[in-house]
């Protein structure tokens, strides 16, 4: 059975596609690429159908990650098909919890940086959209660091499911 993870930010053109591509690469490197399906979405639909922000694409490409992406909006009906919904900041966490129809669905929502022990109480990945390139580089570093802890958690979940 495939484990399914969806990263969620605001418009699905900066943070969540970056997290999607980085985590997919981390899974491949760990030999879990076939066991885990990774996707991303936004809480809003402003950019539906658009590609990722050019700065996101540049940072991903320059660091050896894939960057093909089409933005879309998260739908409450997706919860039933997802094992984990990863919010990029507290605002997304709140919006996703409001969309959850059951306590079980709400329990599947986590903040990405909660998987990075070095994050401390700074659990938001700041939105780089209105800033310069350095914000996208910072976002990449946060996503990579949290991805390592997320990878360990997903690996454990998969192992627990395997008879």
TrEMBL record:
Source organism, top-level taxon: Bacteria
A GO term, aspect molecular function: protein tyrosine phosphatase activity
Domain Phosphotyrosine protein phosphatase I: residue ranges: 3-153
EC annotation from Swiss-Prot or TrEMBL: 3.1.3.48
InterPro entries to which the protein is assigned, alphabetical: LMW_PTPase, Ptyr_pPase, Ptyr_pPase_sf, Tyr_phospatase_low_mol_wt
Keyword list, A-Z: Hydrolase, Protein phosphatase
Pfam family, one: LMWPc
Keyword set includes Hydrolase: yes
PANTHER family: LOW MOLECULAR WEIGHT PHOSPHOTYROSINE PROTEIN PHOSPHATASE, LOW MOLECULAR WEIGHT PROTEIN TYROSINE PHOSPHATASE
Family per record: Belongs to the low molecular weight phosphotyrosine protein phosphatase family.
Listed name of the protein: protein-tyrosine-phosphatase
Organism, scientific name: Streptomyces exfoliatus
């Amino acid at each position: 059975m495939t484990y399914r993870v969806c990263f969620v930010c605001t418009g699905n053109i900066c943070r969540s596609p970056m997290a999607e591509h980085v985590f997919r690469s981390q899974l491949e490197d760990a030999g879990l690429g076939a066991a885990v399906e990774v996707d991303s979405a936004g809480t809003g639909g402003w950019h539906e159908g658009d590609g990722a922000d050019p700065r996101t694409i540049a940072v991903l490409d320059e660091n050896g990650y894939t960057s093909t992406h089409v933005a879309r909006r998260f739908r409450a009906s997706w919860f039933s098909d997802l094992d984990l919904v990863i919010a990029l900041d507290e605002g997304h966490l709140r919006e996703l919890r409001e969309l959850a129809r059951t306590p079980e669905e709400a329990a599947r929502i986590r903040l990405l940086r909660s998987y990075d022990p070095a994050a401390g109480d700074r659990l938001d990945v700041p939105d780089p959209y209105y800033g310069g390139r350095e914000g996208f580089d910072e976002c990449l570093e946060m996503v990579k660091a949290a991805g390592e802890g997320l990878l360990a958690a997903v690996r454990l979940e998969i192992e627990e499911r395997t008879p």
